[in-house]
Amino acid sequence: MGASTCRSANHCRKKTCRSDTLAVATTPDEVGRQQVAEYEALAEKAYDDMYDSRSPAACYSDLKDYFAQAIAAARRAELDEEIARLTARLDHCRQVYRKQLSTF
Length: 104
Description:
By secondary structure, the protein is mostly helical. It is 67% helix and 0% strand.
């Protein structure tokens, strides 16, 4: 099994610093889109890590938190299509976890 980046491995949230990953944005819309992209990338990483983790529940918790942050950033930026897309993706991830990984 590969190394996990979830909280159960004691390094998921500590390794990513927002100030290191955000490029300079010139408009509020760009800032909002960057924040959405950042949180979505973290959520997708946690989704991938669920499959390699001995404790997928911790990764799933991270995934939900990151998607919630991405959706909140999309709401602040009034990106309705992003809100709908991210919500659908979160729902899909929930279904996958419940069907495939919740018995761990």
